[in-house]
Amino acid sequence: MRNGGVLLLLTVAALAALCVAAPSGDGGGESYPQGPCEAGSEVSYQCNTCTCTQDGTGYACTRQLCPPPERERRQANCVPGRAYPSPDGCNTCACTSTGVLACTQRLCINPSTPAN
After folding, report:
1. Rounded to a whole number, what is the largest CA-CA distance in the chain?
2. What is the DSSP pairing of strand 101-103 with strand 92-95?
3. Nearest to residue 85, comparing CAs of 98, 101, 69, 107?
4. DSSP-assigned beta bridge partners for residue 59
5. Rounded distance between C-alpha atoms, residue 18 and residue 40, angstroms
6. Cα(78)–Cα(65) distance, rounded to whole angstroms?
7. Confidence band (pLDDT; 50, 70, 90) for 42?
8. 61 SS3 class
9. pLDDT of 13-33, one tens digit each?
């Protein structure tokens, strides 16, 4: 029971960190909007929307988990209703009716790697 409690505590702590952490730059030259702004104005940050606070001192942003950039690029060729192989070779992806690529996330073992 003790190990289960520790695991639960670590899981809750990790989820809490995701909920309260402000987005940070992703190394792609785009950074979290900061500083004075026009009250009520909106800007986009990755897949989130940021709205300037009423006092104009900064932005409040939605905190959606954004897909990695390579998944966003693959969606450019996504045909609704069509299935695609995942680049990892063992998962599959399907294009939703809205053009969003949704992939299974099974743990894959590379067949070229010998099992010990």
Report:
1. 61
2. antiparallel
3. 101
4. 52
5. 25
6. 20
7. very high
8. strand
9. 434 333 333 433 333 334 567
